[in-house]
C-alpha cells in the first residue's frame, strides 16, 4: 500500500526534495503538500532582482501548481497547518484533518524583527517572501520616499541596493563594526561600504536602534544616540529565525532549530525536518546550497537508502549589480594559519586567502572575484598548494616561471607614463631631474614634486631612481611603523590626512597592511593618529589602547593600579585631602605617595575597586589626573605673587588656566608643563616639554626639555607680554606636536627632528597659523576635555567590566 | 570527561578584549578575538606575572601589558625570541553563551 507523506512548507527545500524523490521512485508515496503562501514554489534567492526590477515573478517560479499536479501531489496552497498530533499521526489545518505515515516539516524561517517599540507598525516589513517584496514596491512609489534597512548583512544590502535602484533614499543601519560581518573581514567590509556610499546609500555601522516611530504608519527610526532617520519604509533584515512553532507545540526536540540527525530525522521516528527550520550538529543554515544537499539526503532516507548530511563549505556572493564580492570558508585569523593578502588600493581590490597546513581553508575577495571558483574548488578538494603558493593569489592565469624583475617593468615604462598622480609627474620628468643631479628622494620631491603630496607613489619613484641610477643607488630603508606594513609613521599620517581615512580598516586597506587587524605596536599609534586628525568623526578604540589608558589608571608590577586625582596647578584643599584620606582608608590602599608632579598618588588599588573609588573622588569634586596617559599630565607651579616676595606674576593662576585648557587632550607621548613665578625657577620649568618663566616684563616660553632617560634643558620659543599670548602659544605648540610628531616621540625628540625654527615659524611668527592651530586644538578638546572617571564610574558604562566574569573558586575547590 | 559550565554571554567580553574568571588557583583569562573566537588561558605571564587579560589582543595573540611578551592564544606558547608557555583551557561558544571546561580546572586544583 502507498504510504502517506505529508509535507508542511512549499519552499525551495521541499521542492527540491520532491524532485529528487520522484526521480528515485515516482509512486512510493501519496504526497500532500501544505504551503502557507497562496502560490507554488519560487526561487527565493532571486527576490532581490525582482525587487530591483531586473526580473519579474514569472521568471523565478520553479515549481508551479501544474508541476505538482503532474506528479500527483495534492497541493494545499494558502492553507496553513496549525497543529500536529504525533500520537494519532495527523495534521490539522483550516480545512480539516489529514493523516500521515511520514511527515516532513519544512517551515523555513521568518525575518527576525528586532524587539523595539513600533516594530509592528504598518510599513515595517521583513524580506522573506513575495508579499514582502510587493509591500516594498508599493512603498517605493512614494515620491522621494525614504527607506531604512535594519541589518547590513547579505539580505539587507540586497534590499538596500534594490530600493536605491528604485529611487528611494536608503539608509542602512548595521549593529556591528563593518558590513556583512559574518561573511567579510573588516577590510572587505570597508570597500563594500565605500561602494554603497558612492551610490548614495547612507551606511551607519555600530548603529543601535532604540525605537521605530510613527502613529498609523512608520515615520522614522530613533537611534540610541538620539539620531532620527526619517522612514516611509523599514525593512527588517537583522537576521532570520527558524520557524519552529509547530514543532515546538508538537513536543519535538527543538533548540535554535528543529534538531535532526544526519538522516534529517527529528526526535520522532516518523517525522523529518528539512531546510532553514532545522538545526544539524548545532548549526542552522540560511543559504541554499546546504538546503539542497539536505533535500537529496532526505529523498534517499525516505526511500530507505543510507545517506548522511555532511555540513558543506558554503560560499557567499552578494547579488548587487556592480559589486564583486566573494567569501567562503573560515577566514578568521588564528594560530597555525597563514594568510596571503593582496591589496590594490587604486582599483579597490582586496583578496585574502587563509591557509592551514598548505591547504586553503578560507577566502575573501572584493573587487575582482574572477578566480573565486578556482580557489573554491581548491578549498573543497583540500589539495596541497605548496607548489603554487607564490602565485596562488594571482589565480590560475599567472604564468608559471621565474617572477619578473620589478625594475625591468619600470625600465620598460615609456617616458610619458604618469608616476605621481597628485602632481602629474611623468617618468620622463623624473629621469631628467635625476640627470640634473637630483639623486635621492628628497631632492626629487623638491625639484619635481613627485611623491610630495599623498606619498602613495613613493615606492614607484624610488624604483625609477633605482632603474635610472643602476647599482649606485641604494633605496634608503625608512623604518616602517611595525611588521604589519611597509609604511613609516610619517607616511601613515600623510595618508590619513590626504586620503581622508577615518577608520582603522580604511587605513589598513589603503596602506597595505599585511595582517588583518594589526598588532600591539601599530594599533595604539593608528588610534592616536586617527583621533588627532578626525576628532569629530573617529571613535576612540579602547581595545587599541595600552592597559593604562583603557583602565584609566597606572598598572603596577603586581597587577594592582595607582589612582591619582588631578590637583589643578598643584593646589589642593583640606576637603580634598580628607576625601583622599577617606578613599585610602575605605579601599585599604597600601601606599600613599606625594609625586614629583605636585599631587598625591594612591598605590596598590585593586581593579574592581577602581570605579567605586573614582565615584567617591568625583563626589568630592576631583577628576582623573591622567597620570597614566600619553596626554597632559601636570602643570607644576610655584606660589607666585600670591605669597612669594620674589614673584613677578600669578604663576599659580596661569598654571591652573593652562591645566584647565589642556587636560584630557591626547598627545603622541606624555606632556608635562611648569610655570615659575620668577627666574629662580622653583617649579623647574626648564626641564619640561613646555616651561614658562614669569619675569617683570612678561612671560618667557621655552620648549623641548626633558628630565627622564635623557636630561635636556628647554630652548627659548618666544617671550610674550601678556598671559593671553602665553596661553595661545602653549595651545598652538601642543597642537603642532599633536599633528606632526611620531607616536611615542616626546616633544624634545620631535623638535630635534623638525628643528626649532620650523616650530617658531608656525607657532610664533605666522599669526594666522597660530590661530588655526588653536582652533583645531579647541575643536578636539570639545570632544576630549572630559573626565574619564566620571564617565566610566557610572553604572551605565559597563560597571561590570571591572569585575571578574565569573567566580569559580567554590566549584574548583570541590 | 568534560564538564562544560556556562560562564557568561559572549557579549560580556568586548571584541579584541578579555575578562577573567576567578578560580581557586588564580585567574583564567577569557579572550574574544575580532572575529568572535574565544580562548581561555592562564591569566599570569610566566615572565613577571603580568595580567595577560589586560594585554592588547591582535589576531589570535595577546601582548602582555608589562613587558610585551606575545602569546599564541591557541597553544599558550610565547612567540618570537621569548621562551615560555601558559596553560590553555577548553572553551566553546554555544548559542551565544561561553562554556568553559571545568574538569580541567578541577584537575588543576587536585594536582
Automatic annotation (TrEMBL), chain A:
The keyword Nucleus does not apply. Signal peptide: none annotated. Residues 419-466, 481-530 form the BFD-like [2Fe-2S]-binding domain. Residues 315-381 form the NADH-rubredoxin oxidoreductase C-terminal domain. Keywords: 2Fe-2S, 4Fe-4S, FAD, Flavoprotein, Heme, Iron, Iron-sulfur, Metal-binding, Nitrate assimilation, Oxidoreductase. Its cofactor is [4Fe-4S] cluster; FAD; siroheme; [2Fe-2S] cluster. It comes from the Bacteria. Residues 630-769 form the Nitrite/sulphite reductase 4Fe-4S domain. Residues 556-620 form the Nitrite/Sulfite reductase ferredoxin-like domain. Pathway: Nitrogen metabolism; nitrate reduction (assimilation). PROSITE patterns: NIR_SIR (PS00365). Residues 4-278 form the FAD/NAD(P)-binding domain. Belongs to the nitrite and sulfite reductase 4Fe-4S domain family. This is NAD(P)/FAD-dependent oxidoreductase. It comes from Parasedimentitalea maritima.
TrEMBL record, chain B:
CDD domains: Rieske_NirD_small_Bacillus (cd03530). The keyword rRNA processing does not apply. Gene3D superfamilies: Rieske [2Fe-2S] iron-sulphur domain. GO terms for biological process: nitrate assimilation. It comes from the Bacteria. InterPro entries: Rieske-like_NirD, Rieske_2Fe-2S, Rieske_2Fe-2S_sf. Transmembrane segments: none annotated. PROSITE patterns: RIESKE (PS51296). SUPFAM superfamilies: ISP domain (SSF50022). Keywords: 2Fe-2S, Iron, Iron-sulfur, Metal-binding, Nitrate assimilation, Oxidoreductase. One of its GO terms (molecular function) is 2 iron, 2 sulfur cluster binding. Residues 5-100 form the Rieske domain. This is Nitrite reductase small subunit NirD. The lineage of its organism: Bacteria, Pseudomonadati, Pseudomonadota, Alphaproteobacteria, Rhodobacterales.
Amino acid at each position: 500500500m502507498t504510504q502517506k507523506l505529508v509535507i508542511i512548507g512549499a519552499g525551495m527545500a521541499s521542492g527540491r526534495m520532491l524532485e529528487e524523490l520522484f526521480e528515485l521512485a515516482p509512486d512510493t508515496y501519496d504526497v500532500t503538500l501544505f504551503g502557507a503562501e497562496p502560490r507554488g514554489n519560487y526561487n527565493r534567492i532571486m527576490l532581490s532582482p525582482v525587487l530591483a526590477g531586473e526580473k519579474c515573478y514569472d521568471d523565478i517560479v520553479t515549481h508551479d501548481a501544474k508541476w505538482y499536479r503532474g506528479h500527483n501531489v495534492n497541493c494545499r496552497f494558502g492553507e496553513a497547518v496549525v497543529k500536529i498530533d504525533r500520537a494519532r499521526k495527523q495534521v490539522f489545518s483550516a480545512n480539516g484533518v489529514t493523516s500521515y505515515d511520514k511527515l516532513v516539516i519544512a517551515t523555513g524561517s521568518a525575518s527576525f524583527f528586532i524587539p523595539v517599540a513600533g516594530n509592528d507598525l504598518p510599513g515595517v516589513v521583513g524580506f522573506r517572501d513575495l508579499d514582502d517584496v510587493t509591500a516594498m514596491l508599493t512603498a517605493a512609489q512614494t515620491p522621494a520616499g525614504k527607506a531604512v534597512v535594519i541589518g547590513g548583512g547579505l539580505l539587507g544590502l540586497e534590499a538596500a541596493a534594490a530600493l536605491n535602484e528604485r529611487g528611494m533614499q536608503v539608509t542602512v543601519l548595521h549593529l556591528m563594526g563593518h558590513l556583512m560581518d559574518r561573511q567579510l573581514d573588516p577590510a572587505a567590509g570597508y570597500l563594500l561600504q565605500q561602494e554603497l556610499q558612492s551610490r548614495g546609500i547612507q551606511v551607519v555601522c555600530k548603529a543601535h536602534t532604540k525605537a521605530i516611530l510613527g502613529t498609523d504608519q512608520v515615520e522614522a527610526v530613533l537611534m540610541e544616540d538620539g539620531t532620527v532617520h526619517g522612514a516611509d519604509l523599514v525593512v527588517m533584515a537583522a537576521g532570520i529565525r527558524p520557524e519552529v512553532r509547530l514543532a515546538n507545540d508538537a513536543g519535538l526536540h527543538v533548540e535554535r532549530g528543529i534538531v535532526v540527525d544526519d538522516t534529517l530525522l527529528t526526535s520522532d521516528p516518523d517525522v523529518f525536518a528539512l531546510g532553514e527550520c532545522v538545526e544539524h550538529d548545532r548549526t542552522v543554515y540560511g543559504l541554499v546550497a546546504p538546503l539542497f544537499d539536505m533535500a537529496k539526503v532526505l529523498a534517499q532516507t525516505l526511500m530507505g537508502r543510507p545517506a548522511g548530511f555532511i555540513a558543506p563549505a558554503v560560499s557567499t556572493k552578494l547579488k548587487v549589480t556592480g559589486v564583486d564580492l566573494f567569501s567562503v570558508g573560515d577566514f578568521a585569523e588564528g594560530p597555525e594559519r597563514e594568510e596571503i593578502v593582496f591589496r590594490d588600493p587604486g582599483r579597490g581590490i582586496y583578496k585574502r586567502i587563509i591557509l592551514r597546513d598548505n591547504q586553503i581553508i578560507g577566502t575573501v575577495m572584493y573587487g575582482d572575484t574572477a578566480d573565486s571558483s578556482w580557489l573554491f574548488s581548491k578549498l573543497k578538494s583540500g589539495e596541497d598548494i605548496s607548489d603554487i603558493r607564490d602565485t596562488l593569489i594571482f589565480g590560475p592565469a599567472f604564468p608559471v616561471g621565474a617572477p619578473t624583475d620589478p625594475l625591468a617593468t619600470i625600465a620598460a615604462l615609456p617616458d610619458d607614463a604618469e608616476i605621481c598622480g597628485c602632481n602629474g609627474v611623468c617618468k620622463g620628468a623624473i629621469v631628467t631631474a635625476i640627470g640634473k643631479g637630483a639623486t635621492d628622494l628628497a631632492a626629487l620631491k623638491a625639484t619635481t614634486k613627485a611623491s610630495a603630496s599623498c606619498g602613495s607613489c613613493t615606492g614607484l619613484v624610488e624604483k625609477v631612481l633605482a632603474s635610472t641610477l643602476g647599482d649606485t643607488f641604494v633605496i634608503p630603508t625608512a623604518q616602517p611603523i611595525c611588521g604589519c606594513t611597509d609604511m613609516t609613521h610619517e607616511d601613515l599620517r600623510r595618508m590619513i590626512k590626504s586620503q581622508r581615512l577615518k577608520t582603522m580598516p580604511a587605513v589598513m586597506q589603503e596602506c597595505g597592511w599585511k595582517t588583518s587587524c594589526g598588532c600591539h605596536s601599530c594599533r595604539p599609534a593608528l588610534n592616536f593618529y586617527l583621533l588627532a586628525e578626525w576628532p569629530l568623526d573617529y571613535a576612540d578604540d579602547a581595545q587599541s589602547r595600552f592597559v593604562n589608558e583603557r583602565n584609566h589608571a597606572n598598572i603596577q608590577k603586581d597587577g594592582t593600579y595607582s589612582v591619582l586625582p588631578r590637583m589643578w596647578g598643584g593646589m589642593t584643599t583640606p576637603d580634598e585631602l580628607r576625601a583622599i584620606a577617606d578613599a585610602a582608608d575605605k579601599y585599604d590602599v597600601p601606599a600613599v605617595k606625594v609625586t614629583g608632579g605636585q599631587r598625591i598618588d594612591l598605590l596598590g588599588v585593586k581593579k574592581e575597586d577602581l570605579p567605586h573609588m573614582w565615584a567617591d573622588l568625583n563626589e568630592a569634586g576631583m577628576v582623573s589626573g591622567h597620570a597614566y596617559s600619553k596626554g597632559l599630565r601636570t602643570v607644576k607651579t610655584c606660589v607666585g605673587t600670591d605669597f612669594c616676595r620674589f614673584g613677578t606674576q600669578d604663576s599659580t593662576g596661569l598654571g591652573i588656566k593652562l591645566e584647565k585648557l589642556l587636560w584630557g587632550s591626547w598627545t603622541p607621548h606624555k606632556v608635562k608643563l611648569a610655570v615659575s613665578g620668577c627666574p629662580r625657577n622653583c617649579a623647574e620649568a626648564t626641564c619640561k616639554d613646555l616651561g614658562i618663566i614669569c619675569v617683570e616684563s612678561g612671560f618667557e616660553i621655552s620648549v623641548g626639555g626633558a628630565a627622564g632617560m635623557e636630561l635636556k634643558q628647554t630652548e627659548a620659543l618666544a617671550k610674550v607680554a601678556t598671559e593671553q599670548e602665553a596661553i595661545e602659544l602653549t595651545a598652538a605648540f601642543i597642537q603642532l606636536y599633536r599633528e606632526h610628531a611620531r607616536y611615542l616621540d616626546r616633544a624634545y625628540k620631535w623638535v630635534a627632528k623638525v628643528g626649532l625654527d620650523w616650530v617658531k615659524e608656525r607657532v610664533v611668527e605666522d599669526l594666522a597659523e597660530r590661530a588655526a592651530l588653536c582652533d583645531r586644538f579647541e575643536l578636539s578638546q570639545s570632544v576630549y576635555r572630559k573626565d574619564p572617571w566620571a564617565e566610566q564610574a557610572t553604572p551605565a558604562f559597563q560597571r561590570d567590566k571591572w569585575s571578574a566574569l565569573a567566580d569559580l573558586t567554590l566549584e574548583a575547590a570541590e | 570527561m568534560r564538564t562544560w559550565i556556562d560562564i557568561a554571554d559572549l557579549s560580556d567580553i568586548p571584541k579584541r578584549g578579555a575578562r577573567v574568571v576567578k578560580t581557586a588557583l588564580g585567574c583564567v583569562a577569557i579572550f574574544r578575538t575580532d572575529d568572535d573566537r574565544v580562548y581561555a588561558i592562564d591569566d599570569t605571564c610566566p615572565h613577571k606575572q603580568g595580567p595577560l587579560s589586560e594585554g592588547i589582543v591582535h589576531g589570535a595573540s595577546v601582548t602582555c601589558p608589562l613587558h610585551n611578551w606575545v602569546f599564541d592564544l591557541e597553544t599558550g606558547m610565547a612567540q618570537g625570541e621569548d621562551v615560555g608557555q601558559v596553560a590553555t583551557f577548553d572553551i566553546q561558544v554555544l548559542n551565544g553563551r561561553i562554556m568553559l571546561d571545568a574538569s580541567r580546572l578541577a584537575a588543576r586544583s587536585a594536582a
